[in-house]
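Protocol step 4 of 6: structure prediction from sequence.
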Amino acid sequence: MKPPVHPDVAHGLALAILTSSAAPALLLDEDLTVIAGSTSFYRAFGLDPLNVSGQSVFTLGAGEWNVPQLRSLLDATLSGHVRIEAYEMDLKGGVPPRRLVLSAHKLDYGEPEQVRLLLTISDVTEARLSEKLKDNLLREKAILLQELQHRVANSLQIIASVLMQSARRVQSDEARGHLHDAHNRVMSIATLQQQLVASRLGEVELREYLSQLCKSLGASMIHDHDKVSIAVTADGTSVNADISVSLGLIVTELVINALKHAFPGARDGRILVDYHMHDVGWTLSVSDNGIGTPETLADAKPGLGTSIVEALASQLHATVETEGGYPGTTVSVTHTKSPSS
């Protein structure tokens, strides 16, 4: 057991703590009477030291410190049952009320009459107001974003409808084909947008994302699902929204290309979309079991879809490789981590 500290020494130590405190603080005795306060306390709450010393903490000011829960917590702290680390309360003496965070520590020097309580106060009114303002701004931003997404979805549907109507009116088969391509691309972007809106997390889980995308592509472009199907195999990788958009657009272009060219003459076929992480990066591939591609990508004349895939892959710092032959064609987009990453 530690020997008791001389009362004068204990009092001097407690006052030294107050003097060195940059935060508002009070030194209370066992009856919760104010022994002394820090200069910052008097300044922060506009109180005269002569009117504070010797007064109960609950009678300070206009009685705004007389909060029943605070009284209970201070009594429990003196008894050693609890320790107040961060008790928040509203000090209602001013307009508007001030939000305070209180911490109380029992100073026991070995004698019952020497027990002291050090109460420190932090004014977090401005911080709480800032947090509330931030929450309000985030709420408003979410509402505006939801409205923007709704308008984007409506606009994409209108554009797709206009393209389809135009395709029905034109006489040229070539023009009709271009309009159908444009319609499919708009619908794929609409699908991507819907999937991203549905994802409420910062990260997009690719298996579900690509599955829903391919399901939408199949619904709009495959006339007989008994003859042609699209399957997705992917690991549990999640990526941020920007990367998921690029991957989704790549898949859209490659799947559309396979549906257009791999199965002529209403032949049966299957398209497989695969994404997997590996030790040095990731690989996205779209393969089919169609008629195959006799030329390599380098030898073939690049079309719009090929150019889009190349551009998107470049943004992802990935390379595109096409393996053609019979049966089928596989296009792989591979990202390899640099040794320093």
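Step 5 (inspection) to follow. The chain is about 45% helix and 25% strand.
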